[in-house]
Amino acid sequence: MEKEKITKIYEDAEREVSEIDSSEKLQETKVKFLAKKSVLMSLLSSLGLLPPEERKSFGQSLNEVREKIARLFEVKEEEIRKVELQKKLQKEQIDITLPAKNMDVGGVNPFYVVKDEITDIFLNMGFEVADGPEVETDLFNFELLNIPKDHPARDMQDTFYISENVLLRTHTSPVQAHTMQAAEGKPIRIICPGKTYRRDDDDATHSHQFAQIEGLVIDKNINIGHLKATLELFVKKMFGEKREIRLRPSYFPFTEPSVEVDITCANCNGKGCSMCKGTGYIEILGGGMVHPNVLKMNGYDPDVYSGFAFGIGIERVAILRYGIDDIRKFYQNDVRFLHQYRKKA
Fold this sequence. Notes:
Blueprint: H1 2-19, H2 23-34, H3 39-42, H4 52-91, H5 110-124, E1 128-129, E2 135-137, H6 138-141, E3 161-163, E4 166-168, H7 173-183, E5 188-197, E6 209-219, H8 224-239, E7 245-252, E8 255-264, E9 281-290, H9 292-297, E10 306-313, H10 314-322, H11 335-341
Helix pairs in contact: 1-4, 2-4, 5-10
């Protein structure tokens, strides 16, 4: 009698499994036939009521049927998985006859193109790149660069103060001071690229944040001829072999003598036009021989060592190269601006 029940349970399972058409229905039917409270498993409780000689045979039959039913579900589960996967693929199928979407390729900001190119030019001249903090002390930003308290040059570098003696650096020159002190009187040849900050109006030609690449060379017997030769090579590499430079006397508190450096106008080749205001030249940077006071304050004997320094505005060079009419466009993160200069960059 009990074996007939087992056979009936298997036949019912076989019939119901054959009618299953979804994963949800499969799970429900599986619980019905194989869970602990299923009819099949409830027959285990009847083992104790059978004569001892029948128990073993009945138990074996029970296990065999349970394994066969489990196998039915395994086969059906694989079958349903394949059917459902095919339906999903059909539903998500891509229509390859539709026009493809254009991939929007970005561009490198011309600011970074110019920054990297300037850096490469000086690296090829044997310079090393030095870096430093953007938050500086008054000592390194001003005093060690021959700009003591109440010096008029501070008025031109009004900046953002965090406390009385801590501020956002107004130039990358503090990196030069840090490097000189760490060098302990040894020769130096470095460039210092980085962001600088000054309290200024934001308009087409000014920004409270801008970037510089400053250079410093210190060694024995360095003279202004070395400065001119270095900058002349840089200008020809950056703007073309036909460009010439002109040095004009100027004043910077940390260099003596100091010069402004102009290059021949690309628009008129030095003949004079509206772009260069009829002079034939455009100013691009400043420089000079390192002031003896700066050498002395930073660990060098000015009677033995001399040096030159220069500073280049990265945005100014990019504006000249690409004809950009507003410095703020470098920082506004407008992809239309990047696309406009992508091919040129």
